[in-house]
């Protein structure tokens, strides 16, 4: 059993925190909207009033926060995590914020606090059943020390030193944006050529983009896009991808195009839907939220 503080109970964070509780860890929670912690508190977790309070007695503090700006506030803002962390503890950053943010946070933590980046690949179903891929950036010793905790979420993969986990997540998510935007453009072309949508999807399901089509077929057929991975977060991730590429001197034209489509769809009010709703935006058809 490890004393863990978990901060951020969004769509991914809540089931991930539940996995820790189910694994028998002593869990303290913080969330900007406190009532989201109620189901876990009923099962034995403790709710802290501030990030600093949550991290004060923890051996490891895990952050699962939506954006780099929000992470900055949670860690270094008033009553932030940095004020509660003690020497010998660890901050395990599991959000998608990019390697430069990870390194910037690490440089400013109190002396003696270990920083690990461990973003995850997968969405709500994988977070719930514990089958996420966890990209871990740390030393060999750090990976062995915290592997047991991270196994509650799925399969930890040691991908390199600090920052490598965040970098690997951007690489993986760059392909998600490209695939979904490419699918949207293919469907738009098919629409313009007056092809039957269901037949087009049958064909694409057996093509090189088949895995993406099959995983989103129900949403595409219904025009209803319950969020498994919110479009607004996908747009944020593609912004991080293109910024990281520019800093590395790499020309990612497909990633820039995917970012453009996702940001357009977000501005049109689709940000709270699943990121596959970008296909409807590209086609110029309605994308609906679930009714319940």
Structural class: alpha/beta
Overall domain count? 2
Shape: globular
| Assigned CATH class of the largest domain | Alpha Beta
> Can you summarize the main beta sheet?
6 strands, parallel
Can you identify the CATH superfamily of the largest domain?
A: NAD(P)-binding Rossmann-like Domain
Number of helices: 13
CATH architecture of the largest domain: 3-Layer(aba) Sandwich
- Nearest-angstrom radius of gyration? 20 Å
Distance between the termini: 38 Å
* Strand segment tally: 9
- pLDDT averaged over residues: 96
Strand content: 5-15%
Order of strands, main sheet, comes to 3-2-1-4-5-6
Indicate the percent of residues in helices.
Answer: 40-55%
- Low-confidence spans: pLDDT under 50, at least 5 residues? none
Which fold name fills CATH's third level, the topology of the largest domain?
Rossmann fold
One letter per element, helices H and strands E, the order comes to EHEHEHEHEHEEHEHEHHHHHH
